[in-house]
Amino acid sequence: MNAADFAIRTLGPATLPSPLLRGDPEASEHVMVEEGDAVLVDDSLREVRALLAAGRELPCLERAGPRHKLFFRPERVTLGVVTCGGLCPGLNNVLRSLVMTAVHHYGVRRILGFRYGYRGLVDPDGHVELTPQVVAEIHAQGGSILASSRGRQDTGQMLDGLQRLGVDVLFVIGGDGSMHGALDLATEIARRGLAIGVVGIPKTIDNDLCFMDQTFGFQTAMAKAVEAIDCAHREAQGAPNGIGLVKLMGRHSGFIACQATVASGRPNFTLVPEQPFRLEGAGGFLAALQRRLASRGSACVVVAEGAGQDLLSGNGNGTERDASGNVRLKDIGTYLAEKIHAHFAAQDIEINLKYIDPSYIIRSVPANAADAVFCSALGMHAVHAGLCGKTEMLVGVWHRHLVHVPIRQVIASRNVVDLGSTLWRSVLGATGQPPRMT
Amino acid sequence: MNAADFAIRTLGPATLPSPLLRGDPEASEHVMVEEGDAVLVDDSLREVRALLAAGRELPCLERAGPRHKLFFRPERVTLGVVTCGGLCPGLNNVLRSLVMTAVHHYGVRRILGFRYGYRGLVDPDGHVELTPQVVAEIHAQGGSILASSRGRQDTGQMLDGLQRLGVDVLFVIGGDGSMHGALDLATEIARRGLAIGVVGIPKTIDNDLCFMDQTFGFQTAMAKAVEAIDCAHREAQGAPNGIGLVKLMGRHSGFIACQATVASGRPNFTLVPEQPFRLEGAGGFLAALQRRLASRGSACVVVAEGAGQDLLSGNGNGTERDASGNVRLKDIGTYLAEKIHAHFAAQDIEINLKYIDPSYIIRSVPANAADAVFCSALGMHAVHAGLCGKTEMLVGVWHRHLVHVPIRQVIASRNVVDLGSTLWRSVLGATGQPPRMT
Amino acid sequence: MNAADFAIRTLGPATLPSPLLRGDPEASEHVMVEEGDAVLVDDSLREVRALLAAGRELPCLERAGPRHKLFFRPERVTLGVVTCGGLCPGLNNVLRSLVMTAVHHYGVRRILGFRYGYRGLVDPDGHVELTPQVVAEIHAQGGSILASSRGRQDTGQMLDGLQRLGVDVLFVIGGDGSMHGALDLATEIARRGLAIGVVGIPKTIDNDLCFMDQTFGFQTAMAKAVEAIDCAHREAQGAPNGIGLVKLMGRHSGFIACQATVASGRPNFTLVPEQPFRLEGAGGFLAALQRRLASRGSACVVVAEGAGQDLLSGNGNGTERDASGNVRLKDIGTYLAEKIHAHFAAQDIEINLKYIDPSYIIRSVPANAADAVFCSALGMHAVHAGLCGKTEMLVGVWHRHLVHVPIRQVIASRNVVDLGSTLWRSVLGATGQPPRMT
Amino acid sequence: MNAADFAIRTLGPATLPSPLLRGDPEASEHVMVEEGDAVLVDDSLREVRALLAAGRELPCLERAGPRHKLFFRPERVTLGVVTCGGLCPGLNNVLRSLVMTAVHHYGVRRILGFRYGYRGLVDPDGHVELTPQVVAEIHAQGGSILASSRGRQDTGQMLDGLQRLGVDVLFVIGGDGSMHGALDLATEIARRGLAIGVVGIPKTIDNDLCFMDQTFGFQTAMAKAVEAIDCAHREAQGAPNGIGLVKLMGRHSGFIACQATVASGRPNFTLVPEQPFRLEGAGGFLAALQRRLASRGSACVVVAEGAGQDLLSGNGNGTERDASGNVRLKDIGTYLAEKIHAHFAAQDIEINLKYIDPSYIIRSVPANAADAVFCSALGMHAVHAGLCGKTEMLVGVWHRHLVHVPIRQVIASRNVVDLGSTLWRSVLGATGQPPRMT
């Protein structure tokens, strides 16, 4: 990790005075971010001393916020915004904040929203005009008023679309894959020698992006997950040898499963991608589950969708195929349910398993209040960054500071649950499950 | 339907003064139900006139409520209570009300709660003592503190258990199947010449029992179903050709699906057991869905779990078997999802289908406020009935009156959505779906 | 109560075929209400027998619903709608249902919404056009998109406004006072010999209107009241001699206070307008409260705003005046709080009183799912009635049937909590308060 | 701010091996905090460079978490815990986590909960035994199972109580005032030469304590505040010249008002203690409000309870006194309401003001999911600290790290809304109110 890795690219020198200084110069002055304002990537004393001792620079993240000088003249700029990938609570809040900030703070007059993700850039009819009137009430509803889509579009065609419409800054609200697309776009923009900014706002319901204390929508989704777990708990307690099994989102990172476990205090087992486990054997999950049932008469089990993928890999036995002829893998939730049924059936032990998969219920809801505040800040700071000419970067929040992070850094690695962290220890404490089931 | 069909059996003459008359005789007097108080089963003028013209008696339901005279001496009576079948919002509210009424209004000193449904009657250790302290806080939580189970137990053994414990009245909170069991128990009690009352409190999340304006917990479950539908709506709108498909409870009756459809105003198709439909063909569901997508770009579909069972009957092709070797039938939700995928794949039309099955999430939650009020009344009136010696009956609510109904009448038929009713017409209006897709 | 009192006026013979019969004649036929369809006002066997014995007619309410024949030609009709009085959960649901039914079921082309209650009728700019697009999303938000106002307008001027705009049917969503206004309007219409219908949809958050099993929005408001009570309960338990005091809506009828008491199971005292009480003396409220504190260490008290008005009448001692110089009467909530403080201070007993007045919080929220279903039915049936030429009536729900009731009957009396009812007995049981504190 | 100010006192050297190392040494090792682990108080590059350039030490906060060595032997230790001051969402979660961690992680066998705040220490009967069974379900309910109280007790007597019961560590969950008490207690302990630890867990619903990114319960309270604001917004829109006025908690710091404003996006004016304002004059609040009404027809106003205290100071005109004879000051909410009424009445402008004071409704509710996770971590880390012999300190969270902070530092200043911060700028942006109304 070098200090240079965190430098933020700009489209050129910012020389235009910010309109934020009008009106209340004193207050505005106070809030302005100065060039060079930055916060340490690692704020532990030990690390700071080690770097200083080694004569190395302290890696820092540029602080986000309004600047004295802009690169774009707000009243002439055209902003574009697109939401990519799966839905996430707060998309509409970010859109609303972005539009409100651009129009009311800066006097921007033209904002285009692209429909259905990156498709909207290549589709001549794929955009709508966004105004304060259009976005005034949208934060009360889940989903995205722009809709979204998955998958890539041709980078050149996307850029053609942006040029055709005269877009000066594109705001991309999306996850890992979308940020790769945004990076390609920025590269192509540079190749064509254009001054179009690409500013990301990281979106992942799994909280698996780096340089984000927590991603927007995560809290809302986690709270809905707790509701599902509470139901599983009641179902488990409601029948002889009751087992409540809940599958939760979390492809590579088990944050939702872990935090929801700690919040509800109900689960007895929480299985996440970060901690492999075995099903069979004295040290395996099924034996542990059986011990729990024997001693307490019920069990609540949470499994992240990405957990135990190694168990599933050999599981497609070629008999089930989808419409395209691909072998369809069972998912870990139904797989676990089957294995549990089989395990106890083989011993002639009656169980009552209730399987709950809240699926999209946790992500299509409106953002809760805390996420709403967070989304508001993200949208606002993305506009600050975009009008200053920042590009190839996204707005992150690191140690409670809003910062700029190069897209390249964010997609270079993934945020996962650290098995040595307070969170995982809290999970082990809350569940009482064996630290290792292998 | 004869007037005699609604006569309520009693264990014998009620001769003991009710303690409710103590304390505030005037107020209590006012609230007492007199023998003969009854309400018409059919209150339409047309029907009343027809019966009168034919010289027939008007079928009536005995009014529930406290009586001047009791059959049992409260301070010596032992009450038993059991919750049977699947969980339902409000079970704990009914239990709490039953205990509070018996103890605080009547001075009952011994109430036994049987654990895990009818099993608790045959298991010597299958009961717990219920007191106001035990039940004071339980209404805030979902599930049943007694837990439940499905299935029958031997009637003779159940009665042996009741006799061993000296139970004078057994309150059965359960559905169709459990009421059959209660009826068998009452028959065996009569055969043995015992004076043990059997009082039912009807429980069905599907609202499919007769002589109940609405069953307890239904409103709560329906409200949770609306949340799932709202998510499906946002998911459908959030992707190109998005389809949100929600499966809801409703084995034989589509009340949850219908009311949740009207409440949310979102679904474009609502499929229920009462209205058969075809998938294929110009008049079928898939063609209608395709037309909807073509014109509006998204669709929200609700299906009750009991809908389209005829479509599924030939669907078990022998390849998938469960642990016991039984052919496993696909459920209508995943079946529909597959058929929709296949239909559009065959035409090379991209769709984005999001399948949501809230399953137990809608039934394990605490009762909402309205259900809480209703459950309180049910528990209270069950105690009134039991102490008066009423038996083989349950507490219903008919045209807003709390009434007694013979168990035999309630299980004789099933409450289903009338396709000529306001409710179904509201569904057709809200969805805009073709009245018939056959 | 005479049978003739319930006859419904019409503007004239309905001779035009209903478009509902198009499309699916068979299903539509099934759902049509026939002339003469009616339900008994009193469905108790005792009352029916008494009337028959006396040779009197059975009072009936005309059943609401679609008819074979209409008075107005839907595609040429102009409908008007106005929301009057205080906000109530579900106003937007009723508006949405009304518009959707008129347009989608009947093909109505012009619907005017009057802004700010009856003012919108006299203000030339006081109306907006309502279309399905305008109302599509409004049911998710509280309040009324038309806004409202209190107070009367000149009847002649209101009618001038309706005539100027060519309104054929005016739908009035409002309470007691607004229905008086609607009646005056209907009278003036008749005097001028016009064929303009006036159809009411009763609105009162207090549930104090007759011939309504329950008014829309009541359940939602009651559920919010429960939340406030639960907080008061926790506050009471959270401090030495803690008293949680909650004031709830209920000017003349204590339904919200009573049902919320039963639903929450928390209050130890519930004071309503229907049951007078004294503060002082051994039998009074303060002594009872003191006994409760002495024995249990905390108390939760609910008071309806209309309770104890006799105690307040002599209370304005002339020292406090508002800006206009009027003596300002204390409200019962703050009055009780002061009296409680003074009572215990006089005895040097420490108490910790927490006063909670949720006020408008319980009425400005969106309708819950059950109220949403109910509002949908009300709006739909109001349209059915209006297009048939029914006038001077409103849509009620009586013993679970949607019915027509003459406005005159509804405003003739007020629905109050019957002190001999199950509800009040449930309150006494839940609180354990003395039946009389006088 | 000197580095030495943040040193944490201990009762003595920690020499006993932690039982956390048993079971899974490898994982446990990983999670252990080493002596000297600390995070920078200020992580801005500018500040770090300035300190280094000046040759000064970098102020740091000791990292919280489990240590290799303990001061107390867990199986012999007696822990005490007390909740002080007003209720706050999450109190029960902290209690539960504290008990669960002490018992399940460390094997502690005796935990005493003191009832009614510090009173429980001086009252011989003022404590209860806390076990995992007692606390298992308490996180689902608001309030504190220990109850609380305000005010001080004699320090010597409190310590006598602790000694009598053999308490080794006292956990104080409380705010500013309670922390002063805790400090006095720690001082007296030192004076008597005892080895009793005093560990704080900061509690303030107003988020006004330093070295806490955010205090527990704040998010939950803020979310409830948003609900009240949404109602005020609907009320304002629902009447001619409607004004919805909401008073929110916030004695010295307007965090709840500010964040709830940004989250809801509804208020047009947000008044906080940090930003003084005038009522009268062209630049004052009333004129601004009038302009808003004139242009938009409605207004939503939020006022923190501590705002505008200077306006109120001269307002007690000696006529109103409470039971103790003290002049009773009007609160800012009702004061504003009166001033608004008077302002518009003087100009004969009709307004419809709806005043909403959610008061305790926002603080007596259960913690939401995010607060539940946070409370769990606080309780857990307090136990870690207490068993290591840390004293006169509390568990804070700073830049997302759980840390130890000397109580003295925390009570030395107050956390207030920085008028140059993103939060306040977001409020100005969301409301559109004049930056200064003076």
What does this structure look like?
Four copies of one chain form a homotetramer. Chain A has 438 residues and is α/β, with parallel strands linked by helices. The first copy, chain A, has two domains: 3-215 and 367-398, Rossmann fold; 219-364 and 420-431, Phosphofructokinase domain (Rossmann fold), CATH 3.40.50.460. Helices cover 37% and strands 17% of the residues of chain A. The first copy, chain A, contains 15 helices and 17 strands. In chain A, the strands form four sheets. Chain A has a nine-stranded mixed sheet with strand order 3-4-17-16-10-9-6-7-8, sandwiched between helices. In chain A, strands 12-13-11-14 form a four-stranded parallel sheet, with helices on both faces. In chain A, strands 1-15 form a two-stranded antiparallel ribbon. The first copy, chain A, is elongated, with a radius of gyration of 24 Å. The relative contact order of chain A is 0.17. Chains A and C meet through loops of A and loops of C.
- The strand line-up of the biggest sheet of chain A is 3-4-17-16-10-9-6-7-8
As a whole number of angstroms, the C-alpha radius of gyration of chain A is: 24 Å
CATH architecture designation of the largest domain in chain A: 3-Layer(aba) Sandwich
Number of domain units of chain A: 2
Query: What is the CATH first-level class name of the largest domain in chain A?
Result: Alpha Beta
The pair of chains with the biggest contact is: B-C, 62 and 63 residues
User: What does the average pLDDT of chain A come to?
Assistant: 93
Overall number of strands of chain A: 17
The residue ranges of chain A in which pLDDT falls below 50 over 5 or more consecutive positions are 322-327
Structural class of chain A: alpha/beta
The tally of helices of chain A reads 15
